[in-house]
């Protein structure tokens, strides 16, 4: 698969590197062209340059930008993005009095929906924002004997299928969570998990599987 990346930060590097390892072709685009070229060399991408070059290259295009910058950048590229799958990994977060805070208005408001409005002919998918960038640096990430589950939200069936194939190629399990009207829930979940880590806790301990409870097998029978 050909994938363009908008951005030159840590998520661009981690996901871009994971995709190169999985055998995909990646091109990096950034306003700082020198940084885009340096990142491309570092992860083994086919090249780096202007954002428009990355968009034109990719069947799918990753938005790996700060949430505050993502909407205007995507809006400026709306024509180029028409028909392409737009992968949104942004987390709308800012420091708050009690830890990280969500900056969107609620469950039905999300950066993903705003991107869809900014580039209405693009096929937006909310995905890859739940995990810290360090997770994507692992080869075929798995935990406690199971491959990593990657939740995503998409309105377009074809875009969802492409995303599921991409996730599977990374050795992970795609988890379809509904349409873009649920993307705000994924963004809020990411901020919640970051807040748990910020406080010194473990987010995975908050969501144990019911199957792990004593007597769960007997109850199911």
TrEMBL record:
Q: Which Gene3D superfamilies match?
A: NAD(P)-binding Rossmann-like Domain
Q: Where is the Pyrroline-5-carboxylate reductase catalytic N-terminal domain?
A: 2-92
- Tagged with keyword Oxidoreductase: yes
Please name the Pfam families in this protein's record.
Answer: F420_oxidored (PF03807)
Q: What keywords would UniProt list here?
A: Oxidoreductase
Name the source's superkingdom: Bacteria
Which Gene Ontology molecular function entries are recorded, alphabetically?
A: oxidoreductase activity
- Entry protein name: NADP oxidoreductase
